[in-house]
């Protein structure tokens, strides 16, 4: 990003990393699943295709991010755990939760047709995500130290993944409840698991234990650890990145598998998975009796300061590569920018509290009104809703803007929310983004004109090094007959969106 006098606004951005050695867990949930499932006529209580689509998205997440070692999902939610030592984006909460939710959404929208070939997506699916900071073995060990002998200490130490395990308990309870709801909710009040099972059998002839495992137990996604016996079976070759000259770098990766388990809190399951033991630690106790209050204590909510302007800025991830792969025109692709604008308009229309949006290149800033109470100002809900919605619309509208080009892979964005206390500072924030747009665009226009005229990229770079605005304008006129100020205003100054009353 370019330097300008407005850069001071960056100091309003706050740090939000999950401190090690706590484990980072990201939980994703569909926004208004009731409506989404009704509109898309999902079968109740479980739609196998919808669950398989969720599983397929989770698998894609584990394949994309090597640091995620385990995921558990049921119904409309999925939870992802990062390995203990992860340094993924410096463990910044907002970055992580937005990236994962955006990638998940993008894959969901892209793969929809594979799972529902005869049904169109009637509106963009979107998800919300949260970070949960799980106490790891080390944290608990420290908390338990003092006054006890080592055997006692060892007994108490357990790997603490309450949310994941609690989710499975909910999965099962929900399942039984939903079946029951068809008849009479009153009948179910206060009933125990066994009674519900009997009720299902007597009234509906359903043997609960015979229902598909995926429905009853949810799905676990994990990476296999190759042992000497199955080395060749479990390693797959994958492109991990691209070199500067666009040649792929291929490395062997662990294979991602999906399994359904009666009890993911069981020691014998966790401790048998080399990958989980290595990256997360091992279970010393069964973790079945978990109370909801205990789980809730791990969720921290970052509420954004009241009566401040909230700005959610989203930015395309690795769009340098995305624009190369999809052959965007350089330096500006009008259709790509129109697509970004169209997504932003849809977000402004959907979220009433967004009063202004400003976009340039692969980024968009959404300004929420000062007294907004959207999601009670919870940062993760706001950021994830905006980034997920935007991503979903981007994928769904791609063909409208690029009828001749297929989406080669799922694009995704990251997001953050920052509070600005006064309208002057908010204006400076927007000015900062616009100055950035101007400086980058002017530079890129000169750079690509030089390259198109035969200069090598490195030559064009050194040619432009240290040049000021005036010199760049002169260069464009002198060498290429281009008056910079006559170029499309969208390229030079970015795009603004607001409701016209
Ligand atoms: P991260 O955001 O850090 O993941 O990296 P990034 O690759 O997305 O780069 P950054 O956000 O800093 O900059 C956006 C990049 O997207 C630009 O450098 C361009 O390479 C590309 N891009 C955005 N808009 C256009 C466009 O209209 N045409 C072309 N050709 N490229 C574009
Ligand atoms: Mg970017």
UniProtKB/TrEMBL annotation:
Cell location: Nucleus, Nucleoplasm
GO BP annotation list: tRNA modification
InterPro entries: Thg1_C_dom, tRNAHis_GuaTrfase_cat, tRNAHis_GuaTrfase_Thg1, tRNAHis_GuaTrfase_Thg1_sf
Keywords: GTP-binding, Magnesium, Metal-binding, Nucleotide-binding, Nucleotidyltransferase, Nucleus, Transferase, tRNA processing
Pfam families: Thg1 (PF04446), Thg1C (PF14413)
Protein's recorded name: tRNA(His) guanylyltransferase
Domain of life: Eukaryota
UniProt-recorded Gene Ontology molecular function terms: GTP binding; magnesium ion binding; tRNA guanylyltransferase activity
UniProt family annotation: Belongs to the tRNA(His) guanylyltransferase family.
The enzyme's E.C. designation: 2.7.7.79
Segments crossing the lipid bilayer: none
Any Gene Ontology CC annotation: nucleoplasm
């Amino acid at each position: 990003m370019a330097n300008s006098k407005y850069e001071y606004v960056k100091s309003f951005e706050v740090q939000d990393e999950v401190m090690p050695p706590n484990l980072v867990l990201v939980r994703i949930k569909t926004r208004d699943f009731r409506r989404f499932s009704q509109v898309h006529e999902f079968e109740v209580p479980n739609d196998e295709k919808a669950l398989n689509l969720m599983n397929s998205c989770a698998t894609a997440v584990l394949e994309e991010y090597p640091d995620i070692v385990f995921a558990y999902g049921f119904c409309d939610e999925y939870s992802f755990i990062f390995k203990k030592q992860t340094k993924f984006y410096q463990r910044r909460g907002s970055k992580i939760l937005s990236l994962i939710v955006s990638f998940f959404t993008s894959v969901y929208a892209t793969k929809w047709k594979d799972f529902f070939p005869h049904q169109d997506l009637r509106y963009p699916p979107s998800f919300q995500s949260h970070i949960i900071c799980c106490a790891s073995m080390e944290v608990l060990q420290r908390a338990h130290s003092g006054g006890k002998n080592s055997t006692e200490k060892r007994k108490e130490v357990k790997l603490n993944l309450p949310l994941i395990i609690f989710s499975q308990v909910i999965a099962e309870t929900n399942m039984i409840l939903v079946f029951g709801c068809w008849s009479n909710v009153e009948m179910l009040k206060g009933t125990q698991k066994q009674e519900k099972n009997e009720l299902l059998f007597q009234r509906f002839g359903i043997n609960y234990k015979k229902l598909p495992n995926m429905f009853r137990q949810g799905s676990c996604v994990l990476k296999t650890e190759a042992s000497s016996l199955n080395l060749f079976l479990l390693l797959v070759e994958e492109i991990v990145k691209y070199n500067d000259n666009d040649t792929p770098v291929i490395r062997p990766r662990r294979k991602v598998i999906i399994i359904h388990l009666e009890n993911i809190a069981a020691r014998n399951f966790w401790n048998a998975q080399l990958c989980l033991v290595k990256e997360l630690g091992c279970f010393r106790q069964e973790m079945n009796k978990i109370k909801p209050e205990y789980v809730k204590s791990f969720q921290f909510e970052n509420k954004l300061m009241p009566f401040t302007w909230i700005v959610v800025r989203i930015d395309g991830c690795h769009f340098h590569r995305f624009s190369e792969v999809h052959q965007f025109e350089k330096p500006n692709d009008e259709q790509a920018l129109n697509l970004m604008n169209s997504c932003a308009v849809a977000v402004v229309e959907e979220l009433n509290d967004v009063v202004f949006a400003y976009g340039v290149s692969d980024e968009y800033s959404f300004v929420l009104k000062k007294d907004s109470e959207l999601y009670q100002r919870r940062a993760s809900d706001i950021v994830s809703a905006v980034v997920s919605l935007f991503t979903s619309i981007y994928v769904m509208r791609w063909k409208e803007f690029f009828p001749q080009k297929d989406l080669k892979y799922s694009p995704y964005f990251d997001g953050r929310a920052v509070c600005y206390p006064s309208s002057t500072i908010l204006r400076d924030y927007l000015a900062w983004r616009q100055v950035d747009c101007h400086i980058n665009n002017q530079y890129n226009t000169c750079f690509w004109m030089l390259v198109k005229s035969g200069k090598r990229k490195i030559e064009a770079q050194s040619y432009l090094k240290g040049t000021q605005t005036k010199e760049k304008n002169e260069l464009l006129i002198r060498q290429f007959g281009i008056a910079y100020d006559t170029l499309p205003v969208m390229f030079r100054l970015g795009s603004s969106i607001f409701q016209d009353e």
